[in-house]
Task: structure prediction
Amino acid sequence: AMDGKSEGTFTDHEDQMQLGIRIITNAFQNKMNSIEQEIRGYRLSCEEQRANVSNLQRRNSTLEVELVESHQRSQQLQEENKELFKTVNTLRKQIGRLEHLKQSVLTSIQDDQEKEAELGDARILLSDEFLRGATPLTAADMGHIAPGFGQPHRPLTQAPSAASIGMPPYEPQAVAPQHMDAAAGASPVIDGKLFFRNARNQLSYENFNQFLASIRRLNSAQATREETLEEARRIFGAELPELYKDFENLLDRHGM
Result:
């Protein structure tokens, strides 16, 4: 009976040992499986990191190339900027010279226009058309109409501006040879054009305008002969008695 009991106890211990071994084995296998899974996860993560590193390396190489190109472009732009700055300075100098030339040209043009205006006024004054329009009473002396002078008077035009026209000194009692009166003791025939040239040359701008205005009033019957002569006497004054005498003779010739 003792032997049977001992044998049964031994069998139980062996079974317990086997059970413990199986438990340990199962735990080991589970642990190994878990570790292997972690290793596989780490491997995948390492591969991903390696791929990221490769991408970053390629990106870094690209950025380095771009940096070098940018540096070269920056140097090129600096050189271009220097050239453009030199060009701008040159253009500014040229603009300054052109502005100075423009001012000189404008001044010259203005001076030429003023001279042209003065010469134009003088040409208008000395033209036959002006003398015909402004002083019809002398038209016969200038040969524009017949000596009978039966044409109606034309109104005066505006008097020209004061400017020297380089006329010769006044010659009183300027006689037109083609109109010399054959009668003895008659008043000499006055050259109307020469008279007005001399008057324009010796009178001031204001006085000459007043003189032409007085003739205009006489031609339009707004003033009498006496009033016109009185106005002429006042304008010519004591300094130009010859002009007054010639003007009086012109009026006498045309019966005004």
User: Anything to note?
Assistant: The radius of gyration is 62 Å. The CA atoms of residues 162 and 204 lie 7 Å apart.
